[in-house]
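B., you asked whether I could sanity-check this one before it goes into the benchmark set. Here's the sequence:
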Amino acid sequence: MSAPDVSVVVPVYNTMPYLTRCLDSLVAQSIGAHRMQVVAVDDGSTDRSGAELDRYAARHPGLFTVIHQANSGGPARPFNRGLDAATGRYVFFLGADDHLGTEALERLVTAADEWGSDVVLGKVVGLNSRHIYQDIFARNAVDVDLFDSPLPRSLANTKLFRRELLDRHGIRYREELRIASDLPFTLEACYRARRISVLADYEFYYAVRRHSATNITYLSRHLERLRTVEANVRFVAELIEPGKRRDAVLVRRFDHEIAKLVEDDLLRLDRQTQQAVHEGVGALVAEHLTDEIAAQLGAETRIRFALARDGSLDDLLAVIRQDAEVGVPATVAEGGRRYAAYPGFRDPGRGVPDACFDVTAVPEWPAKLDATGLAWEDDERGDRVLTVTAFTPIDDLAAHGADPLAVSAEEIPAETLVTAWGATGSVLRIRFRAADLLAGTGVTGRRRAVSAQIGPFDPDRATGARNATGAAGAAPLRAPRLAGAVPLLRRRGARLYLLTPVRDESGRLMISVVPITPGRVTARLRQKLRRR
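And here's what the prediction gave me:
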C-alpha cells in the first residue's frame, strides 16, 4: 500500500464540542480518505474527547490513527508523537478547536507538488472574533522570502510541511515549552525550506476562539510567557546570524510577544512578578533590540522598552498608568527634539535619561489619541453611525504635521473632524457608518482595531503592514476612562449582528461585529450563570 499524500496531526485535550466539527471537516476533505492519514493524539483528556476520537476511528477504518497518552502539559509532546507516527509525504497540523475548508488539503498538496514547495501556507481566517494577521495572504505567491515578507508575523504551525524536510533536519517541537512551541518549529522549517508558497484564494483554515477561552495559550501567565519568549529569542539568535535577516524575525517578537508583557495588565500583577517582568524584558531589550528593530515599533512600545532597560520598575509602571488611567501626555519641544512628558521625564529624583521619552523620530506620535466618548447616532441621511469623541493634548495638529489626521477601523476609514482646539489640546469627532462596518464583515464576524495615522488614509498602514520606511505609521486609539457603549443590533440578509465598541486587554479601542448564533447565545448564558 502506498504512503498517503498528507498526514494531519491533531493534538487533543478537552476540546469538546469543537472537536466534532474538526473531525467532520477532515472526513469531508475532497482529497479523499485514501490519500490522507489523520493522527489524533489524546493528551489525557478528561471530557469526552478521547471517546469521540475512538468513535470516529471505528466509523472510518484506516483513516484515523488514535494515540492516547497521559497529559503532558502542552501541545509539543502530542505534536511530536503525531509527527513520529505520520507516514504521509506532507504533514499538516490542525488544532482540535479548529476546522478546515473542504478543499483545503487537496489544494495545498497540489500546489506543493506543482511548485516543489517545502512549506505552503493556506489562508487562515478567525472565528468568534479571533484575530489573524492577513497581510501574508494578500495574494497567491509561488515564492515567499522569509526575511522580506510578512511571514515572520505568521509563524503558527498551521501550514503544510514536506515531511522529508522535517526528518532530514530533525525539526521537532521543543517539549520544554508549554506554549508557543510551534514558533521555533515553524521558523526552522521555513529557514531550511527551498521554497515557501502562499495560497490566498480560498479559506483553508478556520481558527476558532473558544467562547470559554480555556485554551492553554489564553490562560498563560506573564512569567510563563516571559520564559517562553526568552527561549524563543535565544533560538532565533542561534539559528540566524546578526543583521537584517535576524532583525526581520525579531521585530515580530518585540512588537507582539515581548510588547504584550508590558501592556496595561502589568499594573494588576503582584510586585514580585512585575519586578521579574521588568528585569526580563530589560535584558531582552539590552541584548537584542537593535536600532533597526526599534524604528519599526510604535511610540508606546519604544518608551516602555526603554524604561525596562534604563529605568526602574516604578518608572515603567508610572508610564503604563498614565496611558491606562489618565491619557496622552503633553509633548515638550526643545532644540529640534520632541519628548513625551510622561511621569519621570526630567524628574531629578528619578534620573531617567531624556532619550527614554524622545519621540522625535516617531512619525505617528501626533496621532496618539484618547477616546473620551462613544455614542450611536443618526447622520444627516438617517443612517446609524458610531460617533467617537477623541482628545489629543496637541493644540495645533497642522503644526505637527498631523493635518490631515486619518482614523480607521483597520481597512474601514472614518470621517474625522477637528471640532475644538485651544491651549489644552484638540477635540476630534470620529464617525464610523454601521453599514460600512457590516459590509466588510464575513458571516463569522470580525473585530477591528481603531487607529489614527498621519496623512490621508492608507489601508496598508491601518491594518498593521509596514510602510516603505519600515515604520508602522499608525497609533492605536486608546480609551483609558471609557466604560463602553450600548451595542447596536443590525440585520444583514438573514443574519443578525451585534456591533459593539469595546476595549481590549491593553486598553485600545476595538469595534466588534459578531453574528447572533444559538451557540454564542448559549455560551453567554453559561458565562452569566457561572458568575452567579
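One thing to flag: Residues 366-531 form one domain. Otherwise nothing jumped out at me.
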